[in-house]
C-alpha cells in the first residue's frame, strides 16, 4: 500500500544529500538512546508498582538519591554535548557557500570536473534558471549533468522563499535584492523534485520544478536542443530587459480559482547580466559593492547566437 510513497530526504542522489541524511539518522539514533529506555522504564514501573502487587517495595520516607540526580542530569548533558559536536562539524563541512570538495568529486569518480554555474530567480509562482555560461534559461525545469559541481547563485524577484531539492541536499533562502549561494552535485541520473520550502501565497502548492540529472553527453545534446528554435518548448523571443517583465508577472488570482502552474519554457537567448540587474533593481542608490547599480532597462543587451552554443572551457563541457 505504501509502494508509491517516497521520503526524498532518505533517498539522496548526491554527496550533500547523503551527508544530510546521515546526520538526520545519527541524531535520530542519539535521541532514541533517551526515548527507548524511557518507554521501557515506564512500562516496567507501571507493571511493578501496580496496585495489585503487594510485594513491591514502598519507601514512604524516601526523598533524595545522588545516583538518580547524576543520571537524570548527566545523560541529557552528555547527549547535548554529542549533538552539539556533530552539528558544529556538519554545519561547517556542509556549508552551502562552500564549493564541492575534491574528496566528494573523487567519491563520485569525477576528480577534475569543472562546475556548472546556474543563476536562480524565484518568482510568483515559478522558478527561473539562467545558465550564464551557456546563454540559455529555463522556467520550472532545471537540467544538469551528473558528476558535475553545481554552483547556484540565488535571488528573488518577489517575496522571500526557500530553494530546495531534497534528494540533492541543503535548502537555502531566496530574498529580493540579495544573493545567496548553494553548491550541490548529482551523483546519478534521475528526475528529482525541487520546490519552494516556504509559503509564498495562493500559488505556493504549485511552485515546484523538476531537476533532471543526466550524463554529460545527454546534457550537451539537451543544450543543443534548447538552441534549436524548432523545439516546441523554446520561446520565440530572447529573455532580456524588455521581455522579462512578461515572464516575471504572476498569473491572475481569484478567490475561487487557484492560479494555474506555470508551464516549462526554454529560452535560447538570454541577456548577459540579467541576474545582476534583477538583484540590483532593489538596491538602486544603496549599492553595498561600491559599483554603480543599473536599473534593468539600462542593462546592455548581449545575447548568445546559435554559433555560440558551445560552452566555454571553464564549464567542463
UniProtKB/TrEMBL annotation:
<feature type="compositionally biased region" description="Polar residues">
    <location>
        <begin position="306"/>
        <end position="317"/>
    </location>
</feature>
<feature type="region of interest" description="Disordered">
    <location>
        <begin position="288"/>
        <end position="317"/>
    </location>
</feature>
<keyword id="KW-1003">Cell membrane</keyword>
<keyword id="KW-0249">Electron transport</keyword>
<dbReference type="InterPro" id="IPR006333">
    <property type="entry name" value="Cyt_o_ubiquinol_oxidase_su2"/>
</dbReference>
<keyword id="KW-0564">Palmitate</keyword>
<dbReference type="InterPro" id="IPR008972">
    <property type="entry name" value="Cupredoxin"/>
</dbReference>
<keyword id="KW-0560">Oxidoreductase</keyword>
<dbReference type="Pfam" id="PF06481">
    <property type="entry name" value="COX_ARM"/>
</dbReference>
<dbReference type="InterPro" id="IPR010514">
    <property type="entry name" value="COX_ARM"/>
</dbReference>
<dbReference type="InterPro" id="IPR011759">
    <property type="entry name" value="Cyt_c_oxidase_su2_TM_dom"/>
</dbReference>
<feature type="domain" description="Cytochrome oxidase subunit II transmembrane region profile">
    <location>
        <begin position="1"/>
        <end position="98"/>
    </location>
</feature>
<keyword id="KW-0679">Respiratory chain</keyword>
<dbReference type="InterPro" id="IPR002429">
    <property type="entry name" value="CcO_II-like_C"/>
</dbReference>
<feature type="transmembrane region" description="Helical">
    <location>
        <begin position="28"/>
        <end position="49"/>
    </location>
</feature>
<keyword id="KW-0449">Lipoprotein</keyword>
<dbReference type="InterPro" id="IPR036257">
    <property type="entry name" value="Cyt_c_oxidase_su2_TM_sf"/>
</dbReference>
<keyword id="KW-0813">Transport</keyword>
<protein>
    <recommendedName>
        <fullName>Ubiquinol oxidase subunit 2</fullName>
    </recommendedName>
</protein>
<feature type="domain" description="Cytochrome oxidase subunit II copper A binding">
    <location>
        <begin position="113"/>
        <end position="225"/>
    </location>
</feature>
<feature type="compositionally biased region" description="Basic and acidic residues">
    <location>
        <begin position="289"/>
        <end position="305"/>
    </location>
</feature>
<keyword id="KW-0732">Signal</keyword>
<dbReference type="Pfam" id="PF00116">
    <property type="entry name" value="COX2"/>
</dbReference>
<keyword id="KW-0472">Membrane</keyword>
<dbReference type="InterPro" id="IPR034227">
    <property type="entry name" value="CuRO_UO_II"/>
</dbReference>
<feature type="transmembrane region" description="Helical">
    <location>
        <begin position="70"/>
        <end position="89"/>
    </location>
</feature>
<dbReference type="InterPro" id="IPR045187">
    <property type="entry name" value="CcO_II"/>
</dbReference>
<keyword id="KW-1133">Transmembrane helix</keyword>
<keyword id="KW-0812">Transmembrane</keyword>
<comment type="similarity">
    <text>Belongs to the cytochrome c oxidase subunit 2 family.</text>
</comment>
Amino acid at each position: 500500500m505504501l509502494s508509491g510513497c517516497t521520503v526524498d530526504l532518505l533517498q539522496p542522489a548526491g554527496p550533500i544529500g547523503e551527508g544530510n541524511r546521515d546526520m538526520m539518522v545519527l541524531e535520530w539514533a542519539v535521541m532514541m538512546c533517551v526515548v527507548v529506555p524511557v518507554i521501557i522504564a515506564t512500562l516496567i514501573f507501571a507493571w511493578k508498582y501496580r496496585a495489585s502487587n503487594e510485594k513491591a517495595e514502598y519507601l514512604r520516607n524516601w526523598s533524595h538519591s545522588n545516583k538518580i540526580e547524576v543520571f537524570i542530569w548527566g545523560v541529557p548533558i552528555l547527549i547535548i554535548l554529542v549533538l552539539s559536536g556533530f552539528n558544529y562539524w556538519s554545519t561547517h563541512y556542509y556549508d552551502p557557500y562552500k564549493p564541492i570538495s575534491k574528496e566528494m568529486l573523487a567519491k563520485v569518480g569525477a576528480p577534475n570536473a569543472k562546475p556548472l554555474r546556474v543563476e536562480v530567480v524565484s518568482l510568483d509562482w515559478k522558478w527561473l534558471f539562467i545558465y550564464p555560461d551557456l546563454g540559455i534559461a529555463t522556467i520550472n525545469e532545471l537540467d544538469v549533468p551528473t558528476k558535475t559541481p553545481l554552483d547556484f547563485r540565488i535571488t528573488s524577484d518577489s517575496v522571500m522563499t526557500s530553494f530546495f531539492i531534497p534528494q540533492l541536499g541543503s535548502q537555502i533562502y531566496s530574498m529580493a535584492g540579495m544573493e545567496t549561494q548553494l553548491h550541490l552535485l548529482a551523483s546519478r541520473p534521475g528526475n528529482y523534485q525541487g520546490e519552494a520550502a516556504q509559503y509564498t501565497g495562493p500559488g505556493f502548492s504549485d511552485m515546484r520544478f523538476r531537476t533532471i540529472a543526466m550524463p554529460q553527453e545527454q546534457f550537451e545534446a539537451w543544450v543543443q536542443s534548447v538552441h534549436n528554435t524548432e523545439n516546441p518548448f523554446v520561446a520565440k523571443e530572447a529573455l532580456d530587459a524588455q521581455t522579462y517583465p512578461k515572464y516575471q508577472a504572476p498569473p491572475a488570482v481569484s478567490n475561487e480559482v487557484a492560479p494555474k502552474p506555470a508551464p516549462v519554457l526554454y529560452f535560447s537567448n538570454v541577456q548577459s547580466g540579467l541576474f545582476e540587474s534583477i538583484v540590483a533593481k532593489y538596491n538602486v542608490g544603496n549599492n553595498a559593492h561600491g559599483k554603480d547599480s543599473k536599473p534593468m532597462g539600462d542593462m546592455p543587451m548581449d545575447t548568445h547566437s546559435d554559433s555560440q552554443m558551445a560552452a566555454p572551457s571553464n564549464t567542463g563541457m
